[in-house]
Design a protein that fits this description.
mainly alpha; 90 residues
């Protein structure tokens, strides 16, 4: 729980900095046919891997929905460069 809170706090703290791009910003860019830089593609892959692992590890429905919402917040507000770090690599 402490790690989850720390991760969310990091993402919320970065949301106040102008000019950050989130995972969902990258998805929108890709959807609009714009080319993504290699590090942007890597961040999307890492995020997807992280999301799948996090959600597959949960067996309780209530916990699953709570974690799903937290991950949505990270995708909307967090800086995508957080998912370039080694801890999220495949």
């Amino acid at each position: 729980m402490e790690n989850r809170s720390k991760l969310l706090n990091n993402h919320f703290a970065k949301s106040t900095i102008a000019g950050i791009s989130s995972i969902n910003d990258l998805r929108e860019k890709e959807f609009n046919g714009e080319a993504l830089a290699p590090k942007e593609k890597h961040a999307l892959i890492n995020f997807d891997h992280y999301r799948i692992n996090e959600l597959n590890a949960i067996t309780d429905d209530r916990a699953f929905h709570k974690r799903y919402q937290e991950i949505q917040v990270m995708a909307n507000l967090g800086d995508y460069t957080e998912f370039l770090k080694e801890k999220y690599s495949i």
